[in-house]
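Rotation project, supervised by the postdoc (A.L.). Task for the rotation student: set up a whole-complex structure prediction and record inputs and outputs verbatim in this book. Inputs entered:
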Amino acid sequence: MKHYRNYVNGKWVESPRTFEDISPVDGSQVAIVHEASRELVDEAVKAGHQALAGEWGRTNASQRVAVLRRIADEMERRQDDFLAAEMADTGKPHAMASTIDVPRGIANFRMFADILATAPLDSHRLDLPDGAYALNYAARKPLGVVGVISPWNLPLLLMTWKVAPALACGNAVVVKPSEDTPGSATLLAEVMEAAGVPPGVFNLVHGFGPDSAGEFISRHPDISAITFTGESRTGTTIMRAAAEGVKPVSFELGGKNAAIIFADCDFKKMLDTMMRALFLNSGQVCLCSERVYVERPLYERFCEALVARIKAMKIDWPNDPATQMGPLISAKHRDKVLGYFELARHEGATFLAGGRVPYFGDVRDEGAWVEPTVITGLGDDARSVREEIFGPICHVSPFDTEQEVIARANDTRYGLAATIWTSNLGRAHRVSEAMRVGISWVNTWFLRDLRTPFGGAGLSGIGREGGLHSLNFYSELTNVCIRIDEEARDV
Ligand code: NAD
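Outputs recorded:
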């Protein structure tokens, strides 16, 4: 059996306390994971500060650009291992992990190397009344030891999205992957070692949230900042802990995203993309749509076409290259999603598709599978229409006017993403800008330029990451102001 150990100060550390890493495909055991103690998290934080006081703290931007590129090259060399680890932990289809999770994980290091290599810094000249002037420029310095706490849905992609810019800016990190997906993070630690990243710069601690590594990081007095992706409720707990030391936080949290489909859209392109927006990663992408609003003339046609596409979907073994949907992440999460199916029934929803656990007649019946599900007929106040479910389920309802749909889409405490489908240019601009979200897509979904600001409004997060926005979060900027006097002249 494989063992996933902690990686602290350049050493692999076992723990007397272990837990099982379970495959959601069939409930089998993938690995034994060594849970970090409070003392080990202390050691990791200390190692980070030592690294900052040593060789790593003296690196310049060009040297760190080279380190990031070495990490990306080593990840690329081991991409098959990453693919296997990610699929074993999550059960996600090969078609997804090989085109999104692993390549994007590698791209995060390359992209932040490029961003750092070309990043401009503020510089301002201020002319003074007496003829002198002041020259201001910003110096970018690391924050210190950054705590990185990540979720299970896109484990490698979301972890590297934070680790890469944190290292680019010269920080040390203490990283805690989700307890459900410890595999790719452990491989990343191996990559750090092979790429020659100095001890203490990248520390990996395994464990859970409360009373475990997650809490130990977020409450640690010597952690300088916390970057977190996960549920909004967990964000609240972490923010409370971070308030103690007035620590900077960057939060990417939950969503209840709207899709708005106007009758003048390109129907085929819309339907192809909406199948992804609803069911990619079994609906476990924070950006997936769970509320679909369709202009009334198109409503019946959309519902029929969606159900027909769902019937043709291949829900199967992750290794089958044709598989479109795998299981949910865990039995616990499946029970939560099934609880929402039950709630929707109780609230009076009509099920157009799904709503049950699929039957395979083999070991997969021990896994965490649910059917792709479409419900209709609920009011906007129903809990299943308001709360994030994070599974392959959406509620579809008709609308009549642009004003109405904008108000309904924005009637949520979340504010992560929207996807809008129309061929009317003016309407595309009007509606996408009116969305109270971090990202509005028009005639597309999940198309990401990594230089752009990414984050959420309301319960969906705090701050923006991506490109320079990430560099600004992971740096302390010191403005240097120099007064330059007129040359003294002899009289
Ligand atoms: P989660 O909040 O349960 O867990 C995320 C991480 O936080 C895990 O590593 C977990 O161990 C840790 N954690 C849990 N409780 C903690 C505590 N009290 N203190 C410190 N750490 C703690 O989230 P999840 O179930 O892993 O992920 C799914 C959620 O993530 C969904 O809500 C989804 O929308 C959100 N998400 C958001 C984005 C985004 O970019 N906005 C991206 C992906 C996922």
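Student's summary: The chain has 15 helices and 23 strands.
Supervisor addendum: The longest helix spans residues 94-118.
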